[in-house]
Amino acid sequence: MQITVRIERYADQGRCVAHSDGRVVFVRFALPGELVRIELDEPHERKDRFWTGEVVEVLEASELRVPPAWPLAGPLADGGGVGGADLVHVSLPGQLAWKSATVTEQMRRLGHVEIPDVPVERIAGDEEMQGLHWRTRIELIADEQGRPSMRRRGSHQRVPIDTMPLASQALLAVAQEHGIWDGGLEPDAHVRIAVPEPRDIDTAADGTALHNTAADSTAVNNTAIQSTAADNADVANDSALRSAVGENYAILVDGKLAAGSDQLRETTTVGARTFHYRVSSAGFWQMHRRAPLVLPQHVMTLVDRVLQGRRSPVIWDLYSGSGLFTLPLAVHVPDTRMLSVEGAAQPVENARRNLGDMGIHAEQVKALAGDVSAVLRHVSKSLAHPDVVVLDPPRAGARKEACRQIAAAHPAGIVYIACDPASLARDTAALTSQGYRLADIHAFDIYPMTHHVETVALFTRKDFAR
After folding, report:
1. Which pLDDT score, from 0 to 100, does residue 238 have?
2. Annotated binding residue at 162?
3. What single-letter DSSP state applies at residue 90?
4. Assign residue 370 a region: left if phi > 0, alpha if psi is -120 to 50, beta otherwise?
5. Is residue 61 part of a domain?
6. SS3 call for 171
7. pLDDT-derived band of residue 239, with 50, 70 and 90 as boundaries?
8. Which residues constitute the domain of residue 206?
9. Is residue 346 part of an annotated ligand binding site?
């Protein structure tokens, strides 16, 4: 069933809101102000309070609309539907405006805080790359013919692909060398490719020699992106890029290492100091090629704002993964003592090893594996009263109990890194009810072409002297 609606505003999950026959309609691939014809998702006869649908024709377009930079990820009506880039129809400035509106609205509606529009920062190099080539990890599924593919939304159909425009150029170089796009996989095989960004050629990767074929296009259109398979082949043949990657990559098929290294090396720089990490090829790490550089630097700035020069602080790093924030936090201020907590055992093993490689011992950083809320019930007296808490929870957020426990420890400041604005907003309400105030909030567009956004918020006690 198709209907015509006027789009009213942004909603969540990359959708916009319209109304029809008294019902709310959540619309994919729309923009506020547009008049569009949409196909309602089945079953459209249901009596739910809302419907969902997708644009099939744009009758009056927003000035922020652009031709999809990756048509396969665009609307089903245009032959798309593979997912992974639900804002592919929106200009880069429009994407920042969308994400700013989403974060701000969620904080006001669910967090109950009245704030100005939240700024969203674009990552260096992304504009030159036109929002593409940022993912250092991708996952694919083999179709019935053994070709790499992605599932089409709303069906079991698998669409074969011969490139992945969101993948970093280093990843594409590895994929090309190993013939990933040629097929030959077992049907239904799950493929994961992880390629840490080689930092020694980071300047080139951000906008000059390594991607001239893409950057020289002043406008990205369907024809240009359809030719990216050839462009990617050019990139893959760049010996300097492939040499810089070396063996620091992993191709996993059905969870087993098929090529590369099971343990990967990642680096970040905070201030003048570089930190080295070993992480599991199958584990979590920030996907954007520059996120491990941008986020720790911003977090440390906020931590300094709280500590105000204090020496020998106690810091908690919760949901700490393999130690992206733990390492710089541990050495940023002399005589720091830390508690880090992560739910999964493997990342904690990685974090302990990464700390040991820096000469940081368990007496200084107590790295524990377990449920955060459970661990916080039994914190030793020496670590029970942190000056600062840093937390980077999963998409569901920290939730009320963990927020209550953090507030009960009376830290002067809480630095919260969030990948979901709604979860951050709900936890904001929990923290403000416990005597904290939102002192700073800033978002980073580390997921171009998608509705996702990374937000970093600082909370301080209401009696904290700024």
Report:
1. 63
2. no
3. B
4. left
5. yes
6. helix
7. confident
8. 137-271
9. no
